Amino acid sequence: MNAVSASAGGGAFPDSGTAGGDVLLSLDNVVKYYPVRVGVVIKREVAAVKAVDGVDLEIRRGETLGLVGETGCGKSTLARCIAGLHPVTSGRITFDGDDITNLSRRKMRPFRRDIQMIFQDPYGSLNPRRRVGSIIGDPFSVHNIASGEERKRRVQELMELVGLNPEHYNRFPAEFSGGQRQRIGVARALALRPKLIICDEPVSALDVSIQAQILNLLEDLQSDFGLTYVFIAHDLSVVRHVSDRVAVMYLGRIAELGHRADVYDSARHPYTNALLSAAPAADPDEAAARQRIILVGDVPSPLAPPSGCRFHPRCPKAEEICGKTDPVLEVKPGDPETHRTACHFPVGRGEDLARAADALRADAEPTLG
Amino acid sequence: MNLLEVTDLRVSFPTSDGLVQAVRGVSFRVDRGQTLGIVGESGSGKTVCTQTLLGLTPGADVSGRAMFGDVNLITLSADQMRHIRGAQIAAIFQDPLTSLHPLYRVGWQISEMIRAHDRSVTKAQAHQRAVDLLTQVGIPQAAKRADDYPHQFSGGMRQRAMIAMALALNPKLIIADEPTTALDATVQAQILDLLVRLQREHETALIMITHDLGVIADFADDVMVMYAGRAAEYSDRRTLFYRSHHPYTKGLLESIPGSTGATDRLRPIPGQPPSLINVPSGCAFHPRCQYVMDRCIDEMPTLITLPSDGGGHRSACWLPPRATGLGADAEEIRQEAVTMNRTERAKAIAESSAASADARGNVA
Asked: pLDDT tier at A21 (50, 70, 90 boundaries)?
């Protein structure tokens, strides 16, 4: 493996920048439950938090897959399962042709080089007592790749690559701003030239002007190194900006999956529609033209998710079948092959959900009447 | 009618590292029933500005005037302030979990607040009022939920409870500091919808502090953009989004995906927000500004009215007043002004900031 250098693009990575190549990672009915135990000596399992509850997903080489959803929808858990940080309860994860589901530590080791993560909180994800050079150099020592002067040279190359001054090798994280710390996190993730980087809310903690700097950096690195990203965020406009394809999650399941334009411009799932209509737009005309679909209540607890379609208690279109039968994630009539929706009554073009939602809400919140 | 008129507010905090100049001369006004949005990044002084009005910045050196009706909020004693805070000016903060007391029932906290301002209200009356308020903000089965503790509420419900508490005494002004930042998108929409609806019903004025331009694009009447403790631009909402003048506002609009100024490739503002201990000379934004001219380095611009926009549009920038909006014609005016008014000194600053504008090169 070559040392990382700023000029390495194109040649070394034939797949660079081509979205929609072969499948790099596939998830097959992945389930992750966290048991809830009571008792002091004899621990009884009384319930399970169904964080991820049957997810099928394919991630193609070179693409950016955006994963959106609200707090508790399981997007971060799914990311951690992919990275092998949490064992899955059932299902199969295949990476580049190899089954990596619940591998032992030793067997997982080679794959850890290929799958890296960037975390949300640039304050919590860096050890404040260690120097930046040694933080970024960690992956090299863990995998016995380079040491001494060689490691220092490579770390400094990485720092330059992500826009940090290589002379700051010996500084502590506290001496860097939030945006710069996030660059440190990016450099560390990049050290072993991974194939897949999972970005878990990489810009949510940053100010808008700094956010744009990091988004551009991630974009440049992707085209230089042919990286594949799984990009998790709750900010829909950020996800729209970076993603090739988007998966919308609700209570541990994928509600809708498709190319960015399909999901954003002709969303079929009522939840996707509500989510999109709720996202603030920094454009008064667009905000005024938009019909806000205001949902009833909060996301239910993943301890006891609703039966059938998980969205049905809040859904303006729900009918009897929605509470009984679980909808399958499938291509709906009139949609392209790549656009799949898990809904019994997908939203048609130009349908007015806002009014139905208001009617439903008036029942739940009597003061609205 | 002017409800609140703040004139030349300055707030600084003496620290062991030096004097932190959090607010460096800000003026704004809010009329009855009106919404003012204050936008800025971390450290722009937007929160300190409004906390000072509520008397919540102990230890700070404050100067200026803040006339609320005929009282100057700045000169009030702690005791006098206590009568105004909550009753006439209410506040809603970002994190509802830290603003509610974890060991008291939600209903009790609201009724206690009512009784603290008016002892003639009986406990039973206050409790009933609390239940009514919780119903009004859309808490289902409010009579029952009033006996819950804050941890039994979800994030959105806690924020609803905070709004109920803020409304309890029918204040004339509500200060909402990032009220939806901690909430998910669909819940954020619920809360904003509720806040605006109640504000209209009660004719309450609202100051909405946010870092998210999207939150105010929908309903603020006026918007003030703050940078390094000063107002960079101040105008009505539409003007700000479509005919902005200050390069910082322009930079913000261009760095938010999906905003009026966004392009395929985001154009971030280079560099970092400045330290408030060593605020840059002249215009505080000049080290990051692509249009920096010589006078920007030494002379601090004040808010001037731009004649082209009917008098309501003010900007603190030395660029020609005609250079408004994100269009090509405005860009031409800006470029022309820059070429005529830039010597080696400003050129060097612009070049180094341009070099770091490239996403890679943010070398500090």
From this structure: low
- B266-276 as b/e, with b when 16 or more CB fall inside 10 Å? bbbbbbbbbeb
pLDDT of residue A125: 87
Measure the CA–CA gap between A135 and A151, rounded to whole angstroms. 12
Whether A234 and B184 lie within 8 Å, measured CB to CB: yes
Rounded to 5 degrees, φ, ψ at A216 are -65, -40
Quick one: which of A242, A270, A228 has its CA closest to A58? A228
Predicted confidence at residue A366, as pLDDT, reads 53
Radius of gyration, CA atoms only, chain B: 22
Instruction: Return all residues near B273 (Cβ < 8 A) that are at least 6 apart.
Output: A207, A209, B41, B42, B43, B44, B227, B228
- With contacts defined as CB-CB under 8 Å, which chain A residues touch B190? 294-295
DSSP A61-124: TT-EEEEE--TTSSHHHHHHHHTTSS--SEEEEEETTEE-TT--HHHHHHHHHHEEEE-S-TTT
Q: What's the pLDDT tens digit per position in A119-173?
A: 888 888 899 999 999 999 999 988 888 888 999 999 999 999 898 889 999 999 9
- Quote ipTM for the complex: 0.82
Q: Give B 287-346 residues with CB within 8 A of chain A.
A: none
Which positions 270-289 of A are in contact with B (Cβ < 8 Å)? 274-275, 277-284, 286-288
Instruction: Average the pLDDT over A328-354 and give the result.
Output: 90
Rounded Cα distance, B24 and A190, in Å: 42
Domains belonging to chain A, first-starting first, are 16-243 (3.40.50.300), 268-368 (no CATH)
Which residue, among A368, A349, A343, A342, has the nearest Cα to A357 in the 3D structure? Answer: A368
- Mean pLDDT (chain A) is 87
CB A237 within 8 A of CB B212: no
The residue-averaged pLDDT of B10-33 equals 93
- Tokens, residue B203: 């004719």
Contact between chains at B135 and A241 (C-beta distance less than 8 A): no
Question: CB within 8 A of A224, min separation 6: which ones?
Answer: A8, A9, A16
Instruction: Cite the DSSP H helix spans in chain A.
Output: 75-82, 105-114, 132-142, 148-161, 178-190, 208-225, 236-242, 260-265, 270-278, 284-289, 353-364
Bigger pLDDT: B180 or B67? B67
d(CA A199, CA A277): 25
> Alpha carbon B307 to chain centroid distance?
25
* Domains of chain B and CATH, by start: 2-223 (3.40.50.300), 263-358 (no CATH)
Residue B269's closest CA among B284, B314, A200?
Answer: B284
